[in-house]
Amino acid sequence: MSDMPMELVEDVELELPSVGVQALEEISAAEAVHSVEELIARGKQRGMITQEEILQLVPQIEENVDKLGEIYEALASAGIMIEDGLVEEDAFTIEFENEPMVVLDDGLDFGDNGVGDTVRMYLHEIGRVPLLSGDQEYRLAKQIEQGAKAQAKLKKQADLSSVEREAIERAILIAEDARHHLAEANLRLVVSVAKKYMNRGLSLMDLVQEGNMGLLRAVEKFDYRKGYKFSTYATWWIRQAITRAIADQARTIRIPVHMVETINRLTKVSRHLAQELDREPSMLELALECRITSILPDNQRLQLQLNPAAIDPDCKEVYDPYLALMLAQASEKVAAIMEQADEANPLFLRINECRDLLKPQLRRNPTSQELALECHVPEILAEELRIRLQCGPAALVATCKQHDPLLRQALERAANKVRDIHKAALEPVSLETPVGQEEDSNLGDFIEDSKIEAPSDAATNQMLKEAVEQVLDQLSERERLVIKLRYGLQINEDERRQLSAVSSKPRENELALENGRHNTLEDVGKIFDVTRERIRQIEVKALRKLRHPKLGKKLRDYLE
C-alpha cells in the first residue's frame, strides 16, 4: 500500500463547480496512503466499509478507476466486507436546520396536489424492470464496449463490404439496447440516492431527473474489467449530478464549494457548542472552536486556547505544575497504548476512535496530549483534571499573563469572518411571499420604506409650516419675502409672481427662488434692486418683530 501512487483532494468535488474561486488544495501522496490505511483500520474495527466511504477517497473517478481498484483489492486482502450503504448526509450540501431528511417509502404521503401521483406512477414503472445480476451487468457492459468499437471502426473505414457493414450496424444496435437495459435496470438506484437529498431546494422528480443524467454518464464510462458492481460506480455519478444540480439550481445565489464546506463545519460546531453551553455560542467562541485555518490560523488558535490571558488582561489563571504533570503522565499513557496497538484493549479502541474524530478537524494527526484531553477515559486522565485543563488551559503555561493585543485583533477578525459566513448562508426571501393564513398580503407590504416620511413626522412638519406662515403673516410683504429668501423657506406661486414683478432681471434670479436655498444679502438685494445693507436692515427689523413673546409662543412647542 505504501507504494501506491495516489493524489487525493482534501474534499472530493462531487457537486459544486468552482467558478471564480480557489481550487481545493490537494493532499500529498503520503497523506493519501495514510487515509487508505485509516479506512482499512476503521473497516477492521467495524467489520465492514460502505461504498460511500470508499468513493469519498477518490476524486474524479473517471480518471482514477485504477486507484479505486487498488483500494478494493487492499480491502479484500484485509478481509473487510464492502456494503452498498450510503452516508446519509453529504459533506457538500448545506445542512438546513429544522428540516429533517425525508425517507421515501411506500407509505409516504405526497399530498393531493398531483405530484404524488406522478411519483407513484414513475416508481411503479421503474419497479417493473427486474434487477440485473453480476453476469448480466458484465454481458451488457461488454456489448456496450463492442458497440463503441464498432462505431469507431465505421467512422474510420469507409470501404467496408456489405456483410461487414451489416455486422457493425447490428453491433451498434445491440449496444444501444444494452445501454437502455442497463440504465432502466438501475433507475431504482437513482431514486434511492435522490431521496436522501429531499428538502434541499429541489423537488424529488427534479432530483431523480438529474440523477438519471448521471446514470447515463455512468453507463458510458463503466469498465466491466475492474470486477466491481455497476451500482458502485454509478452511485458516484448519480450523486455528482444531483449535488451539482442542487448547487446550481436550489439557491437563488450560488455558494462556491469551499464556502459550502465552511458553512457545514460551522453549523456542526455551533450545534455542539449550543449543547455544551446551553445557549447559542458567540462569534468569538465559534471562531475558536471551528478549527478552520482560513478563519483563524492553527498557531493563533492554539495560542489563544492555551493562553486566554493573551486576549483578557484581567485573567486570574495561574500556572499549576501539578496539572501540567498529570497531563504529561496521561500523554505518556496514550503514547504507550497506541504503540502496543492491542485491538483487544478497549482503551486502544477508544483512543483510536478519538483520533479518527480529531484528525479531520485538525487536518493532521493529533498529539498524545490532545488525545488524552479528548478521549474522556478516566483511567488515562481523571475527569476532574480534564475539566480543569479544558476550562483553564493557562494552568499549563507559565507565561500566561502576557497580554497580546495582536492576538485579540486576530480573534476579532476571525469573529467577523464567521459573521460574514453566517450571512452568506442565509436564503434570500421574495418580497412577493404570501403572508398570513389567508395569504392576502405579501411580505413586501410589511417592510418599511426608509425614503418615505413617517405619517406622524409628516403631520408635524405640515403643522410647523402652517405655524411659520401664520407668524410670517404678521410681517410686512417685503419683510416676509426677505426672511424666506434668506432662510430658505418655501415660496408659493403668488410670492414668486410678486418677486418677478419687483425684480428687473427675473430670469437671472430664478436660482435664488428655489425652495430650501439660503441666499446671501447680495443675492436678495439683486432681486429687490437694493443694496445689501438695505436688505440687512430689513432682516434685522423683521427678526426683531419675530422675537416678540406673543409670536414666539406659537413656535416654542416645535423646539422639542
Structure overview:
The protein has helices at residues 29-46, 51-55, 65-77, 115-127, 134-156, 162-184, 187-194, 204-221, 230-250, 257-277, 283-289, 298-306, 321-340, 346-362, 368-374, 383-391, 405-425, 455-472, 477-487, 493-502, 521-528, 532-546, 549-556; strands at residues 8-9, 26-27, 48-50, 81-83, 434-435, 441-442. It has 560 residues and is mainly alpha-helical. It folds into four domains: 8-85, no CATH class; 115-250, Up-down Bundle (Four Helix Bundle (Hemerythrin (Met), subunit A)), CATH 1.20.120; 261-407, no CATH class; 455-559, Orthogonal Bundle (Arc Repressor Mutant, subunit A). Strands 1-2 form a two-stranded antiparallel sheet. Helix 7 crosses helix 9, helix 13 packs across helix 15 and helix 21 (521-528) crosses helix 22 (532-546). Mean pLDDT is 74; it is low at 1-28, 85-114 and 394-401.
Task: Write a compact overview of the structure shown.
With 560 residues, the chain is mainly alpha-helical. The protein has helices at residues 29-46, 51-55, 65-77, 115-127, 134-156, 162-184, 187-194, 204-221, 230-250, 257-277, 283-289, 298-306, 321-340, 346-362, 368-374, 383-391, 405-425, 455-472, 477-487, 493-502, 521-528, 532-546, 549-556; strands spanning 8-9, 26-27, 48-50, 81-83, 434-435, 441-442. It contains 23 helices and six strands.
